[in-house]
Design goal:
Elements: H1 5-61, H2 72-84, H3 87-99, E1 103-109, E2 115-118, E3 132-133, H4 135-138, H5 142-151, E4 157-165, E5 171-180, H6 181-232, H7 247-283
Length: about 280
């Protein structure tokens, strides 16, 4: 089935709009993903520094002499007790874990990932699971980032770690801000829904405008087609009235001139036919 010229023109314009919208949406998705991951990374680093400051303040204000780090159990018990009595640290851990849209938990651990402080106090003394550093996600390529966010089942955890050392450069504690890809993916899905809605409205508007534009562009062809049909029927006295100065206007002028010439030729032919008829009668 052959499509009408108007339909084909509308379809071509719509496909062009779809191609442009797809490219714009893809680039916007990649840029938003990278910006969201960078923002999440910066947020994690900022919070880890805030927690580190609270830990230093708690350790600095404690007047007791800490046990030597060689006595691992005693030193861990000392750190846990000091941090549990720091109200600023406890409040920061609870509020951040509750209200942050991407952070699932905050924790302070020793070098062996034993939890010293956590918003869930029942986990104190247990070993925190090892997760990938957030740099593995933030430094990945855009396609790799989207693959991690959407093709990782179950979702993966990444953390931002802030190491803390004593004056002798011994590792005392590690602040870990852990984030889950499902939470980042949720923000991306919200972005996608909004932009897909905008794309749908833009596509509907573009299709409507394309149909109107094709109608305006092809309407003169209807006048020209009607004029050609009149010429075929021998109605040369009705010119094509198309007041345009573009290519279609030039075509209509040319057809009008052709009609005038055909009308003159028809009159000449009719005169010649009459003369031939008189000659034939004379010969008879």
């Amino acid at each position: 089935m052959t499509l009408k010229l108007k339909t084909r023109l509308t379809l071509v314009m719509t496909l062009l709009v779809v191609a442009v919208l797809t490219i714009v949406f893809s680039l916007g998705m990649v840029n938003f993903t990278q910006a969201l991951i960078r923002q999440t990374d910066k947020q994690g680093q900022l919070i880890s520094k805030q927690v580190s400051a609270q830990v230093r303040q708690a350790l600095g204000t404690d007047t007791r002499i800490p046990p030597p780090q060689t006595d691992t159990l005693a030193f861990i018990a000392y750190l846990r007790e000091v941090l549990s009595m720091a109200p600023g640290l406890t409040s920061l851990l609870e509020s951040t874990s509750t209200y942050s849209p991407t952070i699932i938990y905050l924790a302070v651990t020793d070098a062996n990932n034993i939890i010293l402080a956590h918003h869930n106090t029942s986990l104190l003394g247990t070993r925190l699971p090892t997760v990938e550093p957030f740099a593995n996600l933030s430094n990945a390529s855009p396609l790799r980032q989207l693959k991690i966010l959407y093709r990782s089942e179950p979702s993966r955890n990444f953390d931002v770690a802030e190491q803390m050392f004593d004056p002798q450069n011994n590792l005392v504690a590690i602040v870990r801000v852990t984030m889950n890809t499902a939470l980042i993916r949720q923000e991306l899905n919200d972005y996608m829904r909004k932009n897909l809605t905008i794309m749908g409205l833009a596509l509907l508007t573009a299709t409507t405008l394309a149909a109107l534009l094709s109608t305006l562009l092809l309407n003169p062809l209807a006048f020209i087609s009607a004029g050609i049909e009149r010429m075929v029927k021998g109605e040369f006295g009705k010119p094509i009235r198309l007041s345009r100065r573009d290519e279609l206007g030039m075509v209509s002028l040319g057809l009008n001139e052709l009609g005038q010439k055909l009308e003159v030729n028809r009159e000449e032919i009719d005169t010649l036919k009459g003369n031939i008829g008189q000659i034939v009668k004379g010969l008879e």
